[in-house]
Amino acid sequence: MVVDFHGDDDRRVSYDFGPLAMPGWHPILAEALALRVGHSGGIRTLAGCRNSWNSTKAWIQFLVSLEQPPKTVDGLTREHVDAFYTRPGFAKSTRHIQMREMSKQFENERISRRLPSDAWDAFNRRLPTLKQSGVGGYSHGELERLTAAARADVAQISRRIRAGEQLLRQARDDPGKLDARQRELGETLVRIAETGEIPLLEGDRNWLRRRADLAGHLFMTWADLAPLMALLAIVTERNGETLKELPARHRLLEDRAVEVVLVKRRHRAQQWFETVTWEIGPKSRELHTPGGLYLLLLELTGRSREFCGSTAAICFWRNNWAVADRNRSEHFAPFEIDLGRGSKIEMSAWAATRAKPVLADPRPAAKAKATEDAPEKEPPVPLVVTFNKIKTSMDARRTRQLGGHLPSSAKSNTAQVLFANYLKPDEATREWAEEVITEALGDAEQAALDAHAAVAGRGGGPKVITDDSSAQQLEEAGLAPQTARDLSEGNLDTAWTACEDHDHNPETGAPCGDSFLACFHCGNCLVTRDHLPRLLALLEALGGLRQRMSEDDWWKRYGPAWVAVRRDILAKFSSAEVSKAQEQSLPDALLDLVEPPWEQP
Q1: Cα(193)–Cα(212) distance, rounded to whole angstroms?
Q2: Torsion over CA: 94, 95, 97, 102 (sign)
Q3: pTM of the model
Q4: In a designed cystine with 313, which of 219, 246, 260, 446 is the match (CB 3.0 to 4.6 A)?
Q5: Distance CA 400, CA 421 (A)
Q6: Do residues 243 and 232 make contact, with C-beta atoms less than 8 angstroms apart?
Q7: Could you give the count of Cα atoms lying within 13 Å of 460 in the half-sphere of its Cβ?
Q8: For each successive 10 residues of the chain (601 residues), what is the average pLDDT?
Q9: Collapsed DSSP state (helix, strand, coil) of residue 100
């Protein structure tokens, strides 16, 4: 009853059911786990396999806790499965994950057909989706400060190790040019370079620190890992798991780029590996280009890699005197065996404890508390640095640079994953999107205003008569006697206004065939107080359409008419006249009639 696992990343593990309780369940559970983590199963990583094993053990522990546990699968009931999903003492997320995992293990037909039907139905039900809070990114200022700090510290690390290599070469080739102190240090570095072993230097309280300082002349140390990994995540725009598994094997392309095969976990079956080409750039820009930084990483870790025999790019020296005392190498690749347990990179601690800490932006709440009488200043807070936040920030920045086009912005994820997991939770991206939308709406509105002004300039615009709509008043307003009588009697009315001469369009001189929405830009258009209720109903109908279609399309189609009614017509009536007309307004029934397909033959 042993299940062996061999992942796509060549990590292996074996799980023995022998020591577990409930031996009657061992055959079916072992077979279910083997199918789940085998070559045809959905689990291909060591971390995923460990989660499956933990869920299996949780299921056995639950069965043991029952007063009358089913000894074999034949005694399993729906009530048992429901009790497992609702058992007390466990977080809801834990119960949800374990229930879903056991459902996956039992779903293979070879397993599910051996379960009682009601128990399998209970496992096979749809579970409610747990709400997951996305990880937001950094503000522009925070990202700039983090990038500058990481780049400065990595530059210092490279200068330190390159200076140590230079001293080592001088100690080997021409020690006579060195002073006594440099000669002594150089001789020590020669021995270290040959053996990889750092003297224990016991004798005072700071001997561990002295060992680390001595090793730092030729090797990277634990303290160097945080800024280097942070800068790698920023420059390459890749997630932490991919960076931890960077290989040392690569191919140079005419000294201009480097070709590397990356591991992209959980990226669908048979699509775990991706070949990327990274620009190297000039030597002075090696901290700014992904290829240059990758080659620098190999240079700084080269000696440790030789001593530990690893093929991973990330190898360094650890200050483990107990290992050194047993004649074992202190050089190792922490992520070669296990991504999660091999090491925990303390990037937040590095950002907070460096000589010039990387600080977060002040919180908006803290700004609001301050008053003129008693200004209240909260102490600066160090920036929380994680791979997820860096990845979100870089994805958001790339999306902004590409104008928000998601298919082009997606780099290591699909456009859907990029939006849902990285862009949507990011506050800075939402603020940028709101600015873009505001600018777009402003442009659309201005385009409608310009279009209205241009058309009105050619056609003269509507003639608005705010006096009484009697024939006498209309004639006194400048209309011809016959036109005044026809207008007062409603003989010239169209959809929402009136037309002075339908047979002669001011622009063409021919009978008018334009849409009624174009009347608001025509010199033949006549508007009186009697038209106000219909115009207000039109505005309400246009407002309803604005809720159901995109702003850009709405402004293009209806914007000019809306602007003409609001600015050229309603603005000429008093607020009392408009309010009185609102009491008489009716739902608009004409807008649909002037829209396609009614106007199409």
Answers
A1: 15
A2: positive
A3: 0.61
A4: 246
A5: 16
A6: yes
A7: 12
A8: 83 90 93 89 80 93 92 93 90 89 91 91 82 69 93 96 94 89 91 88 75 92 93 91 90 92 67 85 92 95 91 89 71 77 77 93 60 60 90 78 56 56 60 60 66 62 78 79 83 85 78 80 83 85 81 78 82 82 72 59 41
A9: helix
d(CA 530, CA 535): 10
Cα separation, 290 vs 257, whole angstroms: 9
As separate numbers, helices (DSSP H) first and strands (DSSP E) second, the chain gives 24, 10
414: left (phi over 0), alpha (psi -120 to 50) or beta: beta
Strands (E), 137-281: 251-253, 257-263, 273-279
Q: How far is CA 15 from CA 11, 29, 48, 279, 342, in A?
A: 14, 12, 14, 44, 20
Cα 334 to Cα 339, 390, 494, distances in angstroms:
8, 22, 81
Q: Is 192 helix (H, G, I), strand (E, B) or coil?
A: helix
Q: Which residue reads 């070709």 in tokens?
A: 259
The amino acid occupying position 581 is A
CB atoms within 10 A of CB 584: 12
Cα–Cα nearest to 411, from 574, 239, 248, 159: 239
* Helix or strand run (H / E) with residue 481: helix 481-488
| DSSP-derived pairing of the beta strands 463-464 and 498-499 | unpaired
| Residue 489 to residues 79, 398, 469, 484, 497, Cα–Cα distance (Å) | 81, 64, 9, 9, 13
Displacement of CA 1 from its chain's centroid (Å): 43
Distance CA 300, CA 72 (A): 58
Q: Which helix (H) or strand (E) holds 332?
A: strand 331-332
- Pair of tokens at residue 502: 């339908």
99 contact partners, CB below 8 Å, separation of at least 6: 84, 85, 123, 127
